[in-house]
Amino acid sequence: MSELRILSEPDVRAVLDTATALDIARRTLADQAAGRSLLSSPSAMTLDASALGGPRFKFKAAAIGHLQASGIRLLAHPGPTAMRTANYCAVYDLSGHQVSALVSEHWLSRLRTAAFGAVSVQPLVNAGPQVVTLFGTGGIAHEIVPMLAHVLQLAELRVCSRRVQSMQAFVDAHAQQVPAPMRSEPDARKAVDGAGLVITLTESASPLVHAGTLAPGAVVCSMGSYNEVDFPVLGECARLIVDDVDFAAEMGDGGAWIAQGHFSRATFAARVDALACEVVAGSRPGRRSPQERIMALIQGMAIGDVAFAAHAWREGARRGLGRTVELE
Fold first, then answer.
1. How far is CA 290 from the centre of its chain?
2. Which residues make up the CATH 3.30.1780.10 domain(s) of the chain?
3. Is the torsion defined by CA of 114, 115, 118, 120 positive or negative?
4. Residue intervals in the chain for CATH 3.40.50.720
5. Is the peptide bond before 129 cis (omega within 30 degrees of 0)?
6. Which CATH class is domain 2-109+303-327?
7. How many CA within 13 A on the CB side of residue 295?
8. Which residues pair with 197 in a beta bridge?
9. Which of 97, 198, 211, 215 counts the highest number of beta carbons within 10 A?
10. How far apart are CA 80 and CA 88, in angstroms?
11. Residues 94, 69 contacting (CB under 8 angstroms)
12. Which of 314, 282, 274 is nearest to 100 (CA)?
């Protein structure tokens, strides 16, 4: 007999916090750079069941060396009901060769994306206090603010969004926890002016960051699903860092630039200077001079979901959280 542990959203929230998330992200990226955390090949598989009246499914798998676990992220995308979809990560214990847990993915996915983004930009920015501009006020943005306060010395945090009310509500929600001035700035160009780090975390299909707006030495980190950074900005950047070349060529700015005809997939891959895991592990340089501008495309990988889910499973089991089912 074996035991399957099912962890709900409250269970996952009970065993993960900002500091833990950042630590898991660093260790998992270091593992990836050393070849101990692995993505499946292909990194994602899709199944469109819409012709049968069902949703679109996506499956992503990974193995995490430092946690001795593997897993499959199970996602359904039914359109308007997506926020009500129960997505899970199935976790396998490598030593036991068996499925050990189903871990709720809704909040966990936002947390891992924010943690991998924060850890990835840390070695790219210049030393010293940073003026940070954050585009977006959604779920991942809420998670990344305390992480940026952990990994960077903040001089100012600017928030830019299409809706004035959401900007101010976002600032009000975080201002007391951020050890630096925090303000809303509805003008995108003013928001970027003089910033050392610009992070885009939106669903915008039209560019928010344009050529001629980034300060010397600035880092722009694009984390959205569509086209947040205008292609000429890349020409101003000395370095291009991505977390996964294949996924970056499909989604977000990389995918948009290829669709717009600026790149083929091969020329895009050749333009990449390093992977985020290599920079975090120190095996490849991120920043080479104080004046160079750097672009990072950090969208999250299945190794993050599986690592966070594996931690939640083991810590949840230690605390007796979740429901268990006996499997024959």
1. 25
2. 2-109+303-327
3. negative
4. 111-301
5. no
6. alpha beta
7. 25
8. 132, 219
9. 198
10. 19
11. yes
12. 314
CATH superfamily of 111-301: NAD(P)-binding Rossmann-like Domain (3.40.50.720)
Of how many residues is the chain composed? 328
Q: Which of 8, 30, 24 is nearest to 278 (CA)?
A: 30
Question: Is 94 strand, coil or helix?
Answer: coil
C-alpha 185: how far from its chain's center? 24
Tokens (6 digits) for 183 = 């303000």
Q: What are phi and psi of 161, to 5 degrees?
A: -150, 160
In this structure, what token pair is assigned to residue 141? 């943005």
pLDDT tens per residue, the chain (328 residues)? 688 999 999 999 999 999 999 999 999 999 999 999 999 988 888 899 889 988 888 888 999 999 999 999 988 875 444 445 578 999 999 887 889 999 999 899 999 999 999 999 999 999 999 999 999 999 999 999 999 999 999 999 999 998 888 899 999 999 998 999 999 999 999 999 999 999 999 988 899 999 999 999 999 999 998 999 999 999 999 999 999 998 899 889 999 999 999 999 999 999 999 999 999 999 999 899 999 999 999 998 899 999 999 999 999 999 999 999 998 7
Residue 35: exposure state from Cβ atoms within 10 A (0-12, 13-18, ≥19): exposed
Distance CA 127, CA 209 (A): 23
